[in-house]
Design brief:
single chain; alpha/beta; about 240 residues
Length: about 240
């Protein structure tokens, strides 16, 4: 059964590659978003992950905003894409993942090399232009994944792009639970675990539910990036019930 489900994942990845190569160049942005949302939903279904969305934003969803979220797993990108297909800022290591790395690149992922300040500045300037142009940008300010029950400090650099583009920051919260509502261990993607090892753990584990929560947006007008990053982190931790 696991072998068949893994084969379905591989087939689905190839279908995504074919769509990016053959369909995307000749279709609209709206079509791209619809296809990305549908593809992400199917990938999660193959992995027996059900997404439950909860909106705590009081309906005040900004038309343009920079989206940030805590980071647990590679699944996070696809969970968020079921709600808002986004252009993600991700660490450059993901580009080397078999099939999925190329697919993420073709879907608009922006890769950031860790420890290269010049690279951060280049990407930051590009983000401002993309946000102003109406693109939906998302990133994980922890910079890496953390085990459930923990939220790492938020790096503040990229929050400056939201400030300069004059858009709010929209925090999302992701967590993965089992049938009893407890954190699902198979979701954690930390340490030296490879993508293939993580996929194997997910496919052989009991079904999981991905809870996606949209929190109230955070204004960036007149704010400093460190202040916005701190407010966003506190909001995420509070929703997760995590104390500093």
């Amino acid at each position: 059964m696991i072998a068949w489900r893994f084969a379905r994942v591989v087939i689905h990845l190839f279908a995504g590659l074919l769509t990016c190569a053959v369909v995307f160049p000749f279709t609209s942005v709206q079509t791209h978003e619809r296809l990305v949302r549908r593809w992400s939903q199917k990938l999660l279904a193959i992995c027996t992950v059900t997404v439950v969305f909860k909106d705590l934003s009081d309906g005040a969803v900004a038309e343009r905003a920079m989206i940030v979220s805590n980071h647990v797993s590679w699944l996070d990108i696809f969970v968020i894409n079921t709600l808002h297909p986004c252009h993600f800022v991700a660490k450059s290591d993901i580009r080397d993942w078999p099939l999925l790395g190329w697919l993420c690149e073709k879907a608009g992922t922006i890769f950031l090399k860790r420890g290269r300040q010049r690279d951060v500045r280049r990407i930051y300037e590009g983000l401002v232009h993309q946000i102003v142009a109406g693109k939906r940008i998302a990133f994980f300010p922890e910079g890496t994944t953390a085990a459930q029950g923990n939220v790492l400090p938020f790096h503040a650099n990229l929050f400056e792009a939201a400030i300069e583009a004059h858009v709010p920051v929209q925090p999302l919260v992701v967590r993965y639970v089992d049938a009893q509502g407890r954190p699902h261990a198979a979701a954690d993607f930390i340490g030296d675990m490879t993508f293939v090892e993580s996929m194997h753990a997910i496919l052989r584990a009991p079904k999981m539910t991905a809870e996606l929560v949209r929190l109230p947006s955070i204004s960036t007008e007149g704010a400093h990036r460190r202040e916005v990053a701190l407010v966003a982190r506190v909001a995420v931790m509070t929703q997760l019930g995590i104390a500093e």
